[in-house]
């Protein structure tokens, strides 16, 4: 893989806060700039059994929104059927998550790729093992992100409790040594009390810029066609 490929890791304040919506929108945004893009979901759980093997809905969406087609195994090298924490799913199958598979996936990216979006699973500190005695955070996927010098965008699901979750997540990302470049607000429902006040609070509390506000999309078609319009990544993606 060429070192000229810019890579961004999309994490969230929790699970189900809109990481995939934002990841696909980031890909669409980059595609409109004429960049050659790929989307990866290295670790997934909650997969369906298909004739081709396990398939994760989020990973398939990333595959569809990228401008360059990759084999599914490159997009999602670690997949589990059970819709539970991946390290628990692995443990229940007598396995362990091997991040060397993720390294191999990145190494297989074509040399001419300009931009790669890598979507995390759950929140920032995703455990990758059941190790109870590990005190150096090496059993967390976040350590891999930091070690690989990936830029990070934090997705905040704007709802009650998100202020604490967003501030703690931003602090954890910075403490991990990763490069937090911005955050995106995602509106999971139409009925959110004090939305503007929460956005204003986070603008003041987070040291990185707000890179977009995703509205509530009433249809999949609207989300697929218009989500990129709510981002501002031009300066970041100027290669």
Automatic annotation (TrEMBL):
> SUPFAM superfamilies from the entry?
P-loop containing nucleoside triphosphate hydrolases (SSF52540)
Q: Which E.C. number(s) belong to this protein? A: 6.3.3.3
Which cofactor(s) does the record list? Mg(2+)
Tell me one Pfam family matched here: AAA_26
GO BP terms: namely:
biotin biosynthetic process
Residues the record lists as binding Mg(2+): 20, 58, 119
| The keyword Nucleotide-binding appears for this protein | yes
| Location in or out of the cell | Cytoplasm
| List of catalytic residues | 41
- Keywords per UniProt: ATP-binding, Biotin biosynthesis, Cytoplasm, Ligase, Magnesium, Metal-binding, Nucleotide-binding
Q: What pathway annotation does it carry?
A: Cofactor biosynthesis; biotin biosynthesis; biotin from 7,8-diaminononanoate: step 1/2
Reaction catalysed by this enzyme: (7R,8S)-7,8-diammoniononanoate + CO2 + ATP = (4R,5S)-dethiobiotin + ADP + phosphate + 3 H(+)
Q: Where does ATP bind?
A: 16-21, 58, 119-122, 186-187
Q: Which GO CC terms are listed, alphabetically?
A: cytosol
Tell me a Gene Ontology molecular-function term this record carries: dethiobiotin synthase activity
Q: How does it assemble?
A: Homodimer.
Family membership, please give it. Belongs to the dethiobiotin synthetase family.
Which function does this protein serve? Catalyzes a mechanistically unusual reaction, the ATP-dependent insertion of CO2 between the N7 and N8 nitrogen atoms of 7,8-diaminopelargonic acid (DAPA, also called 7,8-diammoniononanoate) to form a ureido ring.
**Protein name, as recorded:** ATP-dependent dethiobiotin synthetase BioD
Species this protein is from: Moritella marina ATCC 15381
**Organism classification, top ranks?**
Bacteria, Pseudomonadati, Pseudomonadota, Gammaproteobacteria, Alteromonadales
């Amino acid at each position: 893989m060429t070192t000229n490929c810019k890579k961004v890791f999309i994490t969230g304040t929790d699970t189900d806060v809109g990481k995939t919506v934002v990841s696909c929108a980031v890909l669409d945004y980059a595609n409109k700039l004429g960049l050659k893009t790929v989307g990866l979901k290295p670790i997934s759980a909650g997969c369906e059994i298909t004739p081709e093997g396990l398939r994760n809905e989020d990973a398939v969406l990333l595959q569809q929104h990228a401008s360059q087609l990759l084999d599914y195994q490159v997009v999602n090298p670690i997949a589990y059927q059970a819709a539970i924490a991946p390290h628990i799913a692995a443990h229940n199958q007598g396995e362990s998550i091997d991040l060397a598979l993720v390294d191999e996936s990145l190494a297989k990216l074509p040399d001419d790729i300009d931009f790669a979006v890598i979507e995390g699973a759950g929140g920032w500190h995703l455990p990758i093992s059941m190790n109870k005695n590990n005190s150096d955070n090496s059993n967390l996927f976040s350590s891999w992100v930091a070690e690989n010098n990936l830029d990070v965008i934090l997705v905040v699901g704007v709802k009650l409790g998100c202020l604490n979750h967003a501030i703690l997540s931003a602090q954890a990302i910075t403490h991990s040594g990763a490069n937090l470049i911005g955050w995106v607000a995602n509106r999971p429902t139409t009925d959110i009390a004090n939305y503007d006040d929460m956005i204003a609070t986070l603008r003041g509390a987070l040291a990185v810029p707000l890179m977009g506000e995703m509205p509530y999309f009433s249809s999949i078609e609207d989300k697929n066609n218009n989500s990129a319009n709510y981002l501002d990544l031009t300066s970041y993606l100027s290669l």
